[in-house]
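Technical note accompanying the year-one report. For the benefit of new consortium partners, we illustrate the data format agreed upon in the data management plan: each record pairs a sequence with a structure-token string. No post-processing was applied to the example shown here.
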Amino acid sequence: MKDLTAKRLSGVHRWAYRFTFGLVGRRMVDNDMMLLTTTGRVTGRRHTVPLLYLKDGDSLVVIASWGGRPDDPEWYANLVSDPSVTVQVRGRRWKATARTADADERAAWWPRVVAAYRGYADYQARTEREIPVVFLDPI
């Protein structure tokens, strides 16, 4: 999928999710979806993307796959620059701090990630970069 098409589909998903408080767009590929809002590292503007997530206690886990493209997604670069993010799951929003899993955490989580959505294994096979696993810890 071309980047522009992916961004447009993401925008439609984001709008439907927000407008319906997650009633529309809360599930994709048999997984729960959330909205993640980061601050643009260049523009300083807020950017929101829909993402599949897993749970780790009170924290959420998201994957910076960008479909296996050679570069990390923009949202990931934004949260590396400023780890203060906003999370929305259905109608509930809260502040969180993002952190990239270290090597041991990623090794432990990657099988769970692939078990949740097999496409992540395909994405990792498409790229030379190691796809980041990100924890969103509530504040």
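Partners are asked to follow this layout when depositing records. The mean pLDDT is 88.
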